[in-house]
């Protein structure tokens, strides 16, 4: 018989080295095969169902007054060195299941109560032979009994069979007394040169004697089948006769029991009727609750939709609302210089409001709404009113400004004082309304034509007056001397010199006038174009 891996001291030392530092003591280490396959099924097994070599090690650890027991699973690394893979606490071991699907009986499952929630099936452990299986399971059960004081549920194998196996494979047992906190007491077994370690018995001496007596009776019955059958028949007849006498003697009790059963049956029928009524009421209540839930869901959805609609309408109303101060400025406000900032702000708001109601900046679904169309018409009316008022004011302003400059003689050349025309004051006063003109251009481009015409007409009057006054003064300062006698009687040479001097003076005067007025006209044309 091959040597068991449980007796491999080198394997034990490798396991102790793998868990070094945990202060645990190895009680048993044995090689097993781990798999998740299903016995008795044909077909190829996947990679997850292939058997993998593992080492199961039973270890204990003293902590305080008690002892903890563990089941360690160790795997082989690439270098053939065992290393810890998983750790199970034996206090959670609730079931030991030897699979009946395995004909050899060497495969078993270990069920832990703290792993029931996992969806992955527990691993199957396959031993080399039944002796190794019994040896490992016996060690686990003994440790559970000694350390934990209880045994897990054993399925697929008889505990008595294991006890008999332990007795047969333990010819010499030397027990050592000790406390439970010192761990399970090991027994040394001498079998040739092989040492077999067997833990304490799974059953007591009294239980073992009862089992042997029962087994002896069972064997005796097998050997004397006819006598045993006759004895069983006699015992059965005696029991039946005793039952008949007991029934006859307990007839009043039976009647009382029957009455109680009948009343209980009536109560059950009444209860069943009441339960039917309650079930019907509950069904109606369930239907009512479902209808209420449906209506509630609809109301919640309607509430959410209404909230979103109100938010959208609030945003739309913000666009449609016309501030009172802007409406006042656009419809009847003054165009004085002190009020120009308010007028410019009103123009900017009106321009943005009109743009916000256009389709690119407004959802197409809102563009055809009645309120939007009415508000757009109202804004267009405001725009028309403001453009009309502003245009009329600017026309009057240009005319009044030019009239003021024409009436003020300080702007023109006077007798004995030739003055260059200066439009700086005119430009400064017109610059105040430059931004207003820009907004009028963005609101209505058609209004710029009449404004240009009015500005040019007023400016034409000013330029004509300036040119006339400048020309008069220039003519007076460059007037040629009239001497017909000299012109008629003088020599030809002197007449030619006088005429040439007069012509030169007039040419200089006209050149000076053109030099002054041509740039002035160009500047005004450029300003008008802008």
UniProtKB/TrEMBL annotation:
Output the InterPro entries linked to this UniProt entry. Sec3-PIP2_bind (IPR028258), Sec3_CC (IPR019160)
Pfam families in the record: Sec3-PIP2_bind, Sec3_CC
What are the protein's UniProt keywords?
Answer: Coiled coil
**What SMART domains does the annotation carry?**
Sec3-PIP2_bind
Residue ranges crossing the lipid bilayer per the database entry: none
Question: Is Calcium found in the keyword set?
Answer: no
Coiled-coil region list? 222-249, 282-319
Which residue ranges does the record assign to the Exocyst complex component Sec3 PIP2-binding N-terminal domain?
49-147
- Specify the protein name: Exocyst complex component SEC3A
Q: Origin organism of this chain?
A: Abeliophyllum distichum
């Amino acid at each position: 018989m091959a040597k068991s891996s449980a007796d491999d001291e080198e394997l034990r030392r490798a396991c102790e080295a793998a868990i070094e530092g945990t202060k645990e003591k190895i009680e048993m280490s044995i090689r097993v095969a781990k798999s998740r396959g299903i016995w008795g099924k044909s077909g190829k097994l996947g990679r997850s169902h292939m058997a993998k070599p593992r080492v199961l090690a039973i270890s204990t650890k003293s902590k305080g007054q008690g002892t903890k027991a563990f089941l360690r699973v160790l795997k082989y690394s690439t270098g053939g060195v065992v290393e810890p893979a998983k750790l199970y606490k034996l206090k959670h071991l609730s079931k030991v299941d030897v699979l009946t699907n395995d004909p050899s009986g060497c495969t078993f499952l270990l069920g832990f109560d703290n792993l029931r929630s996992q969806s992955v099936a527990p691993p199957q452990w396959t031993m080399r032979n039944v002796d190794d299986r019994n040896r490992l399971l016996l060690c686990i059960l003994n440790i559970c009994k000694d350390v934990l004081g209880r045994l897990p549920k054993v399925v697929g194998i008889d505990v008595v069979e294991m006890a008999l196996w332990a007795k047969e494979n333990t010819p010499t047992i030397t027990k050592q007394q000790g406390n439970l906190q010192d761990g399970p007491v090991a027994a040394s077994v001498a079998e040739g040169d092989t040492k077999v370690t067997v833990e304490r018995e799974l059953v007591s001496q009294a239980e073992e004697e009862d089992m042997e007596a029962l087994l002896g009776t069972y064997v005796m019955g097998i050997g004397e089948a006819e006598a045993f059958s006759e004895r069983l028949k006699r015992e059965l007849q005696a029991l039946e006769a005793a039952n008949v006498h007991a029934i006859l003697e307990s007839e009043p009790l039976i009647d009382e029991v029957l009455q109680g059963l009948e009343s209980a049956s009536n109560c059950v029928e009444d209860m069943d009727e009441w339960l039917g009524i309650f079930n019907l009421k509950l069904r109606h209540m369930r239907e009512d609750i479902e209808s209420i839930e449906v209506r509630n869901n609809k109301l919640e959805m309607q509430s959410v939709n209404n909230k979103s609609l109100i938010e959208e309408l609030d945003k739309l109303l913000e666009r449609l609302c016309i501030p009172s101060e802007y409406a006042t400025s656009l419809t009847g406000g003054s165009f004085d210089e002190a009020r120009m900032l308010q007028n410019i702000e009103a123009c900017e708001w009106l321009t943005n409001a009109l743009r916000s109601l256009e389709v690119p900046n407004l959802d197409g679904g809102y563009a055809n709404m009645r309120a939007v169309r009415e508000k757009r018409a109202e804004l267009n009316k405001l725009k028309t009113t403001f453009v009309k008022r502003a245009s009329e004011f600017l026309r009057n302003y240009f005319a009044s400004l030019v009239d003021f400059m024409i009436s003020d003689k300080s702007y023109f050349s006077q007798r004995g004082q030739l003055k260059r025309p200066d439009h700086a004051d005119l430009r400064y006063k017109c610059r105040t309304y430059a931004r207003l003109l820009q907004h009028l251009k963005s609101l209505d481009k058609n209004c710029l034509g009449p404004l240009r015409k009015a500005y040019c007409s007023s400016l034409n009057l000013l330029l004509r007056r300036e040119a006339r006054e400048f020309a008069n003064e220039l003519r007076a300062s460059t007037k040629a001397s009239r001497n017909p006698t000299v012109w008629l009687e003088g020599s030809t040479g002197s007449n030619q010199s006088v005429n040439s001097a007069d012509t030169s003076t007039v040419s200089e005067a006209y050149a000076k006038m053109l030099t002054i007025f041509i740039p002035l006209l160009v500047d005004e044309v450029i300003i008008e174009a802008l």
